[in-house]
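Hi R.,

Here are the chain sequences for the assembly we discussed:
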Amino acid sequence: ELKVEQNPLFLSMQEGKNYTIYCNYSTTSDRLYWYRQDPGKSLESLFVLLSNGAVKQEGRLMASLDTKARLSTLHITAAVHDLSATYFCAVDGGSNYKLTFGKGTLLTVNP
Amino acid sequence: DVKVTQSSRYLVKRTGEKVFLECVQDMDHENMFWYRQDPGLGLRLIYFSYDVKMKEKGDIPEGYSVSREKKERFSLILESASTNQTSMYLCASSPMDRVGYTFGSGTRLTVV
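And here is the predicted structure of the full complex:
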């Protein structure tokens, strides 16, 4: 059974600082997704990573995928308050169509 | 803009009622999914469908059923609602190659 582990689960940052969220998963997969969720809202797609070594960037967020290490990272550069949200990684388990989510990282960016 | 639309944003139902949650997508996606989200438990897959009239159980199908009579519509049915089914329900769809999953805005269901 595919397991997805995110850490940290809670992250309090100061504006302007950098930090990384880690997503480890237990079985082979080459499809990994990052989502953002604001309180009371649904999931907004941030990145789709489809191959080993994939790197994608959007604004202050950059995501990467290492399928050999079964690890994805979401790097935050020079955080701003607007980035405060919960971030989820999710791994596609392959032929069983199942998307398995990490528990999420609650990010709070303080002025 | 592509969309997954869930018919209700908030619902309050009584214990024992039969509850229908509707989801419609306009992207001609083959795959559709129902998840529930609970604090501390994250998102868990209830059921999914990869084609019209096809359905597969997810991780927590007990107490639920689904219906997919048309490609664009996937309904989640709570046969007899119970208080432990109070949750946020999220519908999603993806194309056959599963390159990207789009989520609806969610239905917050309260069973009293």
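Chain B is about 0% helix and 55% strand. The mean pLDDT of chain B is 94.

Let me know if anything looks off.

Best,
T.
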